[in-house]
Amino acid sequence: RVDLSVFRNRLLGFGLSTEDVDRDCSNVASLERWLKKRGVTPDSASERDLRAYLKRLIQRNRNSIDRMLSILFYYETTNRVDLELYMSAVVDGSQDMDDFLERVAGISGKVFARRLEKEIPQPPLGTDPAHLPRYTARLIRYLLLHMPEADVRRALDEHHEGLIPIQYGTERDLYRAASSMDEYLLASAKLEELKCRAFQRAGSKWCELFFPKAYVDRIVLCQERLSAVRRGNTLYITQPPYLPARYIEAGTLEKKRYYTCHDPYVRASLLTGTPSISVVWCERCVSRYRRQYEHLLERPLHAEVVECALLGDTACRFAVYLEQEASREIMFQRHL
């Protein structure tokens, strides 16, 4: 039997009410009872067991966000990193999609949003991420047929204006202290290297998967993976893979694409041949880097995909165009 005392005490430590903690413990106890019939416990369950349980919850209309969060919270207190990642993809992916569809409604109106939901219904909460790419492909095709591409990209930009200064505040301070963009990029890369080494030394349950020595030793030699590299007026950024340890161990191109992709609404399609999802969907990642440099330079910029898993590449690489900023630095350096 699972000892829920550690789980309960951790939730209470977060300041949750007794009522919320009792509910979370009850939800985990329900999971435990169901898994017991399969001869396993929550700690020994496989991903297949968890998928079957979530499918059962959907069939019985018991797939509430509270129940999903209870299971996710439980696995956060264990060493089952694989099941924590799985539940995180289920919960966070669903929340991201809800937010995206809200932005679509804000841009194109509630009437359009209702029609969209009717014609292309969102998968129920708890759906196995392996089944999500089919929905994503239909969704992005529909949106590109009925909305200007610029509006679709705007909806895919998931950054909240009020959070951008918080998210990139340290980077802006670093940029302002540098004498040039190149100096900032080098300093940012060095800072990121120090963070990676610190995570390695911390010895957390995440180290083996996200900061294996072979991976960290490799990326510290590549500034483009740590921050960016400038070529003329363009910054090039290579996004770190979703699961670095499995990425470097992947034996096929398909698996490398799978482990490089961060999006649960896309990832599984990369194992089944050529995905049918438009690369416009990658604006979700592109906008992250564009927003960072817009915040540093305090003006709008343009960014685009250079390489990505959806195009058959084994890494996701983006370009951010600096235009006058890079030109200004080049002129400044010529006059030194």
Keywords, please?
336 residues, single chain, 61% helix, alpha+beta, disordered C terminus
Question: Which SSEs are present, and which pair or pack?
Answer:
Layout: H1 5-13, H2 18-36, H3 47-59, H4 65-76, H5 81-108, H6 110-119, H7 132-146, H8 149-156, H9 164-167, H10 169-177, H11 181-202, H12 207-210, H13 213-219, H14 223-226, E1 229-231, E2 234-239, H15 244-249, H16 253-260, H17 283-297, E3 302-307, E4 316-321, H18 324-334
Antiparallel strand pairs: 1-2, 2-4, 3-4
Summarize the structure.
With 336 residues, the chain is α+β, with helices and mostly antiparallel strands.
Helical amount among residues, as a percent range? Answer: 55-70%
The helix tally amounts to 18
Distance between the termini: 72 Å
Residues in β-strands, percent: 5-15%
* Total strand segments: 4
Query: The biggest beta sheet, please?
Result: 4 strands, antiparallel
Structural class: alpha+beta
Spell the H/E element sequence. Answer: HHHHHHHHHHHHHHEEHHHEEH
Kindly report the average pLDDT value.
Answer: 91
Strand numbers in spatial order across the main sheet: 1-2-4-3
